[in-house]
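Postdoc handover notes: sequence design on the structure in folder B. Input tokens:
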């Protein structure tokens, strides 16, 4: 909103007539119907828990977590519901 109207800089979400922030979500309209996608929706679609930690910039050669992640996601197999996530 501030990019569209610089006069709103420093104002609260309520003053800008925006919804109160509760969690990270993607909002859109599909054929006039409001659609909200949250972490919970994505987790349910992937049949996984949304709890946990995010780690980035891992060195694939020296990281101890790579085998753990592969075992938990793929269950040590190259088939099943996670087979297309290997690459």
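Designed sequence:
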């Amino acid at each position: 909103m501030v990019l569209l109207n610089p006069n709103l800089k420093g104002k609260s979400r309520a003053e800008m007539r925006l919804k109160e922030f509760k969690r990270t979500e993607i909002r859109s309209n599909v054929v006039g119907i409001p659609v909200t996608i949250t972490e919970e929706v994505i987790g349910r679609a992937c049949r996984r828990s949304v709890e946990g930690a995010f780690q980035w910039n891992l060195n694939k050669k020296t990281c101890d977590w790579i085998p753990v992640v592969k075992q938990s996601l793929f269950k040590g197999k190259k088939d099943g519901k996670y087979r297309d996530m290997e690459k």
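Context for whoever picks this up: Residues 53-87 form one domain. Don't rerun without checking with the PI first.
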